[in-house]
Design goal:
With 605 residues, the chain is mainly β. The protein folds into 6 domains: 198 residues, 6 Propeller (Neuraminidase), CATH 2.120.10.30; 67 residues, no CATH class; 73 residues, Sandwich (Immunoglobulin-like), CATH 2.60.40; 67 residues, Sandwich (Immunoglobulin-like), CATH 2.60.40.1120; 74 residues, Immunoglobulins (Immunoglobulin-like), CATH 2.60.40; 99 residues, no CATH class. 5% of the residues lie in helices and 57% in strands. It contains 2 helices and 44 strands. The strands form 11 sheets. Strands 1-2-3-4-5-6-7-8-9 form a 9-stranded antiparallel β-sheet, with no helix packed on it. A 6-stranded antiparallel β-sheet has the order 10-11-12-13-14-15. Keywords: Membrane, Transmembrane, Transmembrane helix.
């Protein structure tokens, strides 16, 4: 990353194709100066030029270099030099300088990883801040020309160590700060910035170069250390020196006669083994990465166990990749064997009806984890809150569950169902076949024949029967777990015809609820027929020689049919005067009460 044609430019290379990088040019006019990563995104700082001024600009990009977010500070005119990620708070600390009155002074910009909520800190030191390091508490140590300043995570200044020197690198290890100055000094400070020791690096450099070049004198003086880096085990420094009389032996001499060199300063590390166990205490072969948080450098990795030299008393990050989950935690090295426990439990889910039966055709899922039909799991998951969801009858049902470390949870989503059978009969109780059966309610369905043993959602339904041009509706309630049979009666068009013999002058009371009822009463002598047509009619009939019909009880075509039946009954009565013909009424649909009533007979011989 840097500048390409006056604009920000990026290159990506891989270990497989290191000499065939891919590139991308940003639309930002200026130069990118520094980049860091949280293993998910990269964060780049640099300058954006507007007219004659250079402003601080920060970009967040994914690992394919696609832009996610960006921020240009309107008040920071100058150059940002470095960006670090606080391992405790996750905030970005951008350090550099701003120009005020023609002079450069330290400047610090703190913002979150979405590049919002910026906070500006200005310690007032002349010159330029060059970098930042962090300890286990999330405190920041900003360093550069003129010294080092300690800040709390919220930006409060806690301590300072200043002087006429330039600090080019700070490494936090074992509750100590290893500080490298540009004039070849290694300072060891406590966390309150008190000096513990000072080590001169020039003898170390001379010894290394003399060993490498067979003792020949090639250095006549030192320039400065330019920059440093660390992997948590060593401090690496790059610097310059002035050539001596045997300089022709030094391949690193450039055209100006300056020697560039690098040195490695080992830190007091010991061999450590880091292993992984799950929430039940079982050793797992999950992949583990060990990261040195101060510089976000990977120092060890392995499957189930990672071995490396680590600094005693130093906090590291363990990143664990389990089956379907990622877990990150920190640990402090306090021995040679470190066990990292991942707080996992086991979770399974199933979907059942109100009768407790697992239904394999219903989808069920542990949201964001796994899915299946009927059942899913058991799966090892991180402790926490989960949602189990199921689908049935086109509707979604959810249940929240909590999984604790070392706990086995069997989550059940129960669908409120009932079992329904419908039987359709006519007025005589005979089962009939309707043309269609409709159900309207929590779900709507239609059938060509009445359903039997149908499982459906519980609730209130309207049942509609379509047959012989009639619509019969009924309201039903189905409760969860209920097994119900609903019997629906469809009245028949002509219900019954009943013939009975009664003595002359006898009063008969007839009550009928049929759609159409024809009653023929045959007297001993003479024969009389009475026809009644009504939805609900109760009448008292006296056997006589006349036909009686209440006005308005039936339309003309019904009267014609009834009259024909009455004539036929009269003829039969004359021919068989003493014979009684009885047709029983439909059960539950027609009732008769018979009584006697004396009456003077008129017009009889």
């Amino acid at each position: 990353m840097g500048e390409a044609g006056g604009y920000w430019g990026f290159l990506i290379s891989t270990p497989i194709y290191p000499f065939a990088p891919t590139g991308k040019v940003s639309y930002i006019k200026g130069r990118a100066y520094f980049v860091t990563s949280d293993y998910e995104y990269i964060y780049v700082v640099g300058s954006e030029i507007f007219g004659n001024y250079s402003y601080w600009h920060i970009e967040k990009r994914d690992l394919n270099l696609d832009l996610i977010a960006e921020y240009t500070s309107p008040n920071m005119i100058g150059i940002p030099q470095y960006v670090g990620i606080d391992p405790v708070t996750g905030q970005l600390w951008v350090v550099g300088d701003t120009i005020s009155g023609g002079n450069a002074t330290w400047a610090i910009l703190v913002l979150n990883r979405n590049l919002t909520k910026p906070t500006v800190l200005k310690p007032g030191l002349p010159g330029r801040a060059l970098g930042v390091a962090f300890d286990d508490a999330g405190d920041a140590y900003v360093y550069g020309r003129g010294g080092i300043v300690k800040y709390s995570p919220n930006g409060t200044e806690l301590a300072s160590f200043t002087g006429n020197f330039t600090i080019v690198g700070v490494v936090y290890a074992g509750n100590l700060l290893y500080v490298v100055t540009a004039d070849y000094k290694l300072l060891i400070l406590d966390l309150n910035l008190n000096k513990i020791n000072v080590i001169d690096l020039e003898p170390l450099i001379l010894n290394n170069i003399q060993n490498e070049y067979y003792g020949l004198k090639i250095i006549n003086g030192f320039g400065k250390i330019i920059t440093t880096a660390s992997d948590g085990l060593n401090i690496y420094a790059i610097g310059t020196a002035m050539p001596g009389p045997d300089v022709h032996w030094a391949p690193a001499v450039n055209v100006t006669g300056v020697i560039y060199f690098s040195i490695s300063i080992p830190l007091p590390a010991v061999p450590v083994s880091v292993s992984v166990v799950d929430g039940f205490g079982s050793v797992e072969d999950w992949h583990i990465d060990v990261v040195y948080p101060s510089t976000n450098v990977l120092v060890a990795s392995g499957d189930g166990v990672a071995k490396a030299k680590l600094l005693q008393g130093t906090r590291y990050i363990a990143r664990i990749y389990g089956p379907g989950f990622f877990y990150s935690t920190t640990f402090v090295v306090n021995g040679s064997e470190i066990v990292v426990r991942v707080p996992t439990g086991r979770l399974s889910a199933r979907v059942v009806d109100s009768f407790g039966r697992v239904v394999d055709s219903w989808p069920v899922e542990i949201v964001g984890v796994a899915s299946g039909n009927g059942t899913v799991g058991p799966l090892e998951v991180l402790a926490g809150n989960y949602v189990v969801a199921a689908k049935a009858f086109g509707k979604k049902f959810e249940k929240a569950v909590v999984v604790e470390a070392g706990e086995v949870v069997n989550a059940v989503v129960q669908i409120p169902t009932a079992n329904l059978s419908i039987v359709v009969v006519n007025s005589s109780g005979r089962q009939i076949q309707p043309s269609e059966v409709l159900l309207e309610g929590p779900i709507s369905m239609s059938f060509q024949k009445p359903p039997a043993g149908l499982e459906l959602l519980a609730g209130n339904y309207t049942v509609e029967i379509l047959t012989e041009g009639k619509n019969i509706t009924e309201q039903i309630e189905l409760k969860p777990g209920e097994v119900k049979t609903v019997k629906i009666v469809v009245p028949t068009g002509i219900e019954s015809s009943t013939t009975s013999a009664v003595p002359t002058g006898t009063a008969a009371t007839v009550t009928t609820t049929a759609v159409l009822t024809v009653t023929s009463v045959v007297a001993s002598s003479p024969s009389v027929s009475t026809v009644t047509v009504s939805s609900v009619v109760t009448r008292t009939i006296i056997a006589s020689s006349s036909s009686t019909l209440l006005s308005g009880e039936a339309p003309l075509f019904v009267i014609a049919v009834a009259a024909s039946v009455a004539v036929l009954a009269a003829v039969l009565a004359v021919r068989k005067r003493r014979k009684v013909i009885r047709l029983e009424p439909l059960e539950g649909e027609e009732t008769r009460t018979w009584g006697t009533q004396k009456r003077e007979e008129e017009g009889r011989d």
